[in-house]
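assembly run, all chains below
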Amino acid sequence: MAAFPEEVTFRLTSRCDFRCLHCDCWLGGPEPDRLGTAAWKDLVSQLVLWRGPGWRLHLTGGEPLLAPGFREICAHAAGLGVHVLATTNASRITRGSLAPLLGCGLQQLWISLDGLGPATHDFSRGRPGAYARAREALDLLLSAAPSAQLTLGIAAIVMEHNLEELPALAEWGAGLGLQVLLHPLVRCGPDWGRLWPRSTDRAVLALERLAALRARGCPIANSVAQLRLFQRYYRDPESRFLKAVCRSGRSLRVHPDGTCYLCDFGKDPVGDAGKVPLKRIWGGAAARARREEIRRCHRACVLNQCNFGGAGSS
Ligand code: SF4
Ligand code: SF4
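ok done. output:
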């Protein structure tokens, strides 16, 4: 059987209160939130029974803080020695919700922030006020996080409207002690075309500046090699990244209806966590077959941080 997953992702809900142009979560889909809080906690317990403590659990969505059991699931996992991280649009982080959030055992939090002002962030996120909310959340968290032992970061998508802002965003984040994670724009969602860089040269230059910052020690979570591959993607989005290793085969993703996937972009589920134990799904025939396909898959989505396992210069 394949070793225990390098990272387990629970997509706690498909719901989201944002309307990002590059995401179709909010359009609704075939995935009802079938797993409740007790079921998610049971999945954590299954994994701890299998592997023990010390593995990484990533809570995502949709917007994971909209899942009613977010804090309870997080506390359950953290109490069993699991490293819990989450990615959020920060809309639900307020002065009133801060203390319970900080007290639930969460160890790492990525906040989506595409730019240094509302003209950039609100536009891509489809929500007036999105920037103000993210900044308020960051201010609250930064004032509390040192005592809460929570590692904070911001995650931005490389797109037309922030190309010139991204280096400044990275430096601003670094000045606050934040990690900065860059994502290439995945061409999905209702309106990604409005976000795609109109000038390849500008996109390549922005990424060059980011790579230079990274090389000088700016806490950008992507490697320089990965940023170079982003450049190639923006030059030719149909590129195949033959030397890039997709780590999807080593990741287990559970969706809100219980369906399990290795690759989030594939259509082939490998099991139903509502019916079959995760250990059996992970080692089952469907997962093995999917891993073989993943080994031969070199699509551009391999460049996403959650899939990127390293690359040569292809
Ligand atoms: S905040 Fe995240 S989940 Fe929500 S619409 Fe935007 S990209 Fe999708
Ligand atoms: S490259 Fe993309 S589609 Fe292919 S296995 Fe990796 S994440 Fe899935």
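The mean pLDDT is 94.

The beta strands are 7-11, 56-60, 83-88, 108-112, 151-158, 179-184, 251-254, 259-261, 271-272.

not gonna interpret more than that til we talk
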